[in-house]
Amino acid sequence: MTDDTRDLVILGGGLVGMTLALTAARQGISSHVVDRADPADLLAEGFDGRASAISTASWNLFTNIGLADQLEQHASPIASIAVNDQMKPGAIDFTPQPGEGSLGRMFANQELRRALFSAASEEPLIAWHDKAEVTRRERGPHGVSATLHDGQVLTGSLMVAAEGRGSPTREEAGLVMAKWDYSHRAIIAGLTHEKPHNQVAWEIFYPAGPFALLPMLDLPDGSHRSSLVWTVDEKDAAGTLKLSDRAFLAEVQKRMGDVLGAVTSVGERSSYPLGFHHTAKITDDRLVLIGDAAHGIHPIAGQGLNLGLRDVGALVDVISGGMRLGLEPGDAQLLAKYENWRGLDSFMVALATDGLTRLFGIPGKAASAARRLGMSGVQRTPLLKNWFMDEARGVNGDIPELLQA
Which residue intervals define the domain FAD-binding in the entry (predicted)? Predict the structure, then answer.
């Protein structure tokens, strides 16, 4: 059976893929969205304890596609970012001046999904195929198609791979990828704690990796809450995950000191391995890679999802502009423009993140002292501090119009 032909065939309906579908729809661009997951499972309580820092630029995107009102009530603003090395003297305090706004917003991934799924289900320009497996992908001179496990054939002008780090579409296309493993694992958990976080995000660096405390909304009973992202050596990960709640909290408390007072409880723990990957090209004939299918970075700076949302804004900008000139979404000229725009920018962000990861991972007192000296220098240099804050907001560089206020 053949379904209607649409402009885009988006393979992957996660946060980046579904944001692309909605953003495209707001510009009159139709799409098929295919995802193997069951939305009910993704929205079930306790499915995913992960949270995401949404930069100012990414928030502009959500505002421009009409999601801000629905999401705002679930946002915990990031008023300040405190960075230090092993809780020792010599740190950076990134705090905007009054009137400059926050450095971003924290959301539970579940709330982002809920808003995206709700909007997508009401958008006629999106044909959403959930619980679906792709059994065949074809790209030719006149269009693309994806055959589903039930025999349904979805056709369009451009195929978009948004399946994440293990993208089968990218692998099938044979796109060359640089990759390496950090031999580290990120442990994710929700914490409740004694003191309010005052909307401060903490990034505490240890030789094994960063230890981040990200401000979340208080619970309805007034309990203060933060999201923990703790990087550990891969060889220590299994043992850390198996610790009792009491022992786990003791280890957490040791690393965070008294910044949030006593930690009173920990939610369900999850983890994922950390690595770097970046494709040499993010386009092919009638194919575009976005999000983690194109680039995977260390969560040290919280820019992974924001990098994917920047892909979304740029791709829709390029396609909508081309369609106004009479070009189809899969036109080679448009794909070349997207490649030139996003290929270098995403690669530079990925390299900078990798460099930061390696710099703060150098062990020893001398390395720690050098890092703290450098951070003290940044703390005393307003121009540098402002540049770093603009990077955190995602407003440096060539910003797609959809990510502008």
Answer: 8-339
